[in-house]
Amino acid sequence: MTELSATPAAILPDDAPTERLKRPTIWRKLRRDKAAMLATGFLVLVVALGVLAPWIAPYDPYDNNLRMMLKPPSEAHWLGNDGQGRDMVSRLLFGIRTTLSMGLLAVLAGGSIGAILGLLAAYFRAMEGPIMRVVDVLLSFPSILFGLAIAAVLGAGTTSITIALTVAAVPSIARITRGAALVVMQQEFISACRAIGMSDMRIMFRHLLPNCASTIFVYLTLQLGQTILLGAALSFIGLGAQPPTAELGTMAADGRNFLFFAPHVSTIPSVAIFMIVLAFNVLGDALRDVLDPRLRQ
Amino acid sequence: MLQHIAHRLLISVPVLIGVLLVGFLLLQVVPTDPATVMAGPTATHQEIEAIREAMGLNEPVIVQFGIYLGRVLQGDLGRSMISNTAVATELGNTVGPTVELMVASLIWAVPLGILLGTLAAVRRGKLSDRIIMAVSVAGVSMPIFWFGLMLIQYAGFHWKLFPFQGRGGPLWTLDGLNHIVLPALTLGGVFIGPVARMTRTSLLEVLGSDFVRTARAKGVSERRVVVGHALRNSLIPVVTLIGLQIGFLLGGAVVTETMFAWPGVGRLAVGAIVSADYALAQGAILVLALSFLLVNLVVDVLYAFLDPRVRAR
C-alpha cells in the first residue's frame, strides 16, 4: 500500500517537469527585449512607490492648504499643488497606490475565478457547454456596462468599481485558461494521472493548472493594463473612487475644472496612468511573443 | 444563409432574456420603493398600498418579471424618478446623438487605421513599421480622457478652433459639424491603434498565402498585389473585428460624452447613476446592452454574407 501511494510522486513530481525546463529560457529571451526590460523596471519602481507611499510621501495627500492652491511645480512641491492646495507628489504616490491596488485586486480575483471556470470547462466535458456559453455572453458585452450596472446597484465608489473590474476580467481569462488546459489535457501524463487513480481535484490543481500557469500569467499581465485603464475611466466619469480619495482617474477628473490655467493638475495623473498601462502592455506583448512565437508577427 | 441567420437569432434569445433579467433585478435591489416615490411625499399608507397593488408590486417576483417583460416589450421603461418624464422618451432623445458620435468617429478612424496598418504590413520590420506599431501600442494604452482633455485644452481653449461643450444641432448645419469635431477626434483617436494592428496582422497573413505568390509570379505590380489582391481579402476579418470592437467604442463613448457634455445615452446613464435615478439608469443600461446585442447580430450576419466559408460551417 505504501509502495503504491509512493509511485505517483516518483513518476510525476507535482511541479511538472516541462514547466521547470521552460522557465529559464523565457527569462533569457525576455532579457534580450530592451523595451520589455525597461517596462519591467518601470513597473517595479511604480509598485514600490505605491507600496511605500505612506512612508515616502513628503506631505499628507489630504492636507488642504488654500494658500498653495493650483501652484505650479516648485522646489518645495515638485509637481505643484492641486485645486485645494494639496501636494501633487503625495497625491500621485497615494493615487498610484489606490489605482494599482484596485486593478491588482480585480485581476487577481477575476483571474482566479476565470482560471477555475476555464479548468472546469476543459476538464469536465459536461460543464463545458454551460460555462463557455456564459463566458461568451459576458465576453460579448463591453466591460463599461458592468461598471455602469454595478455602480447603479451599489452606488458609485471604489468597491463597486473593483467588483465591476473583477467581473470584466473573468471571461477572457476563463477562455484563455480553457484553451491552454485543453492542450495540456491531450498530453500523456494526464492519462497517466488518471490511470493511477489520482483524484480529479488533484489532477486539475497540481498537474493541469501549473502547466497552464505561464499562459494565464501572460494574459493576466495584459489584462492588468486594460483593467487599470477601465478603472481610471470609470473613476474619471465619477463612478469610481469618490473625492477626496487620491485615485489617478478621480484626480484627472478633478483637474478638469482648472484645465485652462493649471493643466498640471489633470495632466500629471493622466500621464501616470498612460505610462503604467503602456508598461503593462509592452511587457504583456513581449511575454506573449516569448511564450507563443506563433503569434509573433 | 437563412439558416445561419435563424440559428444566430435563436441563440440570442437566452442572452436577451438574461439582459432583461439584469435590468429587472436592477430595479429590485435598489433601496427605494417605486410605489412610495410615485405616490409622492404626502401620500397616506393606504394610497401607497393601492399603488403597490396597481403596479403589481405585491405579486411574486416571477410574476413581476412577467409584468416587466410585457411593459418593456411595449416600450414602457418606467418614469424617471427625478424629472418624472417617461424613460423611453428621455432615451429616445439621446440615442441619435450617440449614434451620430460613433459614426463620426468611425468614419475617419477606420480608414486611417487601415491605411496605417497596410503601410506597416508592407514595410514590415522597417522603421516606419516600428513607428506605426509603437504609436499603436501607445494609442491602446492612452486613457481616452487624457486625449480628450488635451484636445479641449489646446484645440478648444488656446487655439479656439472648435467648440468643446455640447451638441450644436443636426450634422448638416455648420454649428452641428463644428461641435462634433473634438468629440469625434477623441473617440476615433483611441480606435486607430486597434484597427491598424488588426489590419497589419491580417494583411501579413494574406501576403504570405499562395494566391499572392501566384499574382507576383505572373508579374502583377506590387501595388496591385497589395491593394487589389491582398488587402481585399484581409479586410474581411478586419471588418468583423471592427464590429466586435463596437463595445470598446461604446465604452469610449460613455467617457467622451461625459467630457464634452454630449447629450447621448452614455452621459444620460452616468448622470442617472450619480443622481440615483434608478428607473432611468436601468432604461439606459438596457438600451445600451440591447443595441450592443443588435450590433453583434448584424456583424455576425454580415460576416457570413462577406465570407462564404462561415456559411458552410
UniProtKB/TrEMBL annotation, chain A:
State where the protein is found: Cell membrane
SUPFAM superfamilies from the UniProt entry: MetI-like
Q: Has the keyword Transport been applied to this entry?
A: yes
Bilayer-crossing residues are 35-57, 100-124, 145-170, 216-241, 261-284
Q: Give every ABC transmembrane type-1 domain span.
A: 96-284
Which one of the record's GO molecular function terms can you name? Answer: dipeptide transmembrane transporter activity
Q: Which GO terms describe its cellular component?
A: plasma membrane
Membrane topology term: Multi-pass membrane protein
Q: Does the keyword Signal apply?
A: no
**Keywords for this protein:** Cell membrane, Membrane, Transmembrane, Transmembrane helix, Transport
Record-stated family: Belongs to the binding-protein-dependent transport system permease family.
Q: Which PANTHER family does the protein's record reference?
A: GLUTATHIONE TRANSPORT SYSTEM PERMEASE PROTEIN GSID, OLIGOPEPTIDE TRANSPORT SYSTEM PERMEASE PROTEIN APPC
Q: What does this protein do?
A: Part of the ABC transporter complex GsiABCD involved in glutathione import. Probably responsible for the translocation of the substrate across the membrane.
Output this protein's name.
Answer: Glutathione transport system permease protein GsiD
What is the organism lineage in this UniProt record?
A: Bacteria, Pseudomonadati, Pseudomonadota, Alphaproteobacteria, Rhodospirillales
UniProtKB/TrEMBL annotation, chain B:
* Pfam families noted in UniProt: BPD_transp_1, BPD_transp_1_N
Residues covered by the ABC transmembrane type-1 domain = 95-303
Keywords of this protein's UniProt record, alphabetized? Cell membrane, Membrane, Transmembrane, Transmembrane helix, Transport
Q: Which PROSITE patterns match?
A: ABC_TM1
Gene Ontology cellular component list: plasma membrane
What parts of the sequence cross the membrane?
9-30, 101-122, 134-156, 176-196, 234-255, 284-306
What domain of life is recorded for the organism?
A: Bacteria
List the subcellular locations: Cell membrane
User: How does the record classify its membrane topology?
Assistant: Multi-pass membrane protein
Enumerate the Gene Ontology biological process terms: transmembrane transport
Q: Which family does it belong to?
A: Belongs to the binding-protein-dependent transport system permease family.
What is this protein called in UniProt?
Peptide ABC transporter permease
Species annotation: Thalassobaculum fulvum
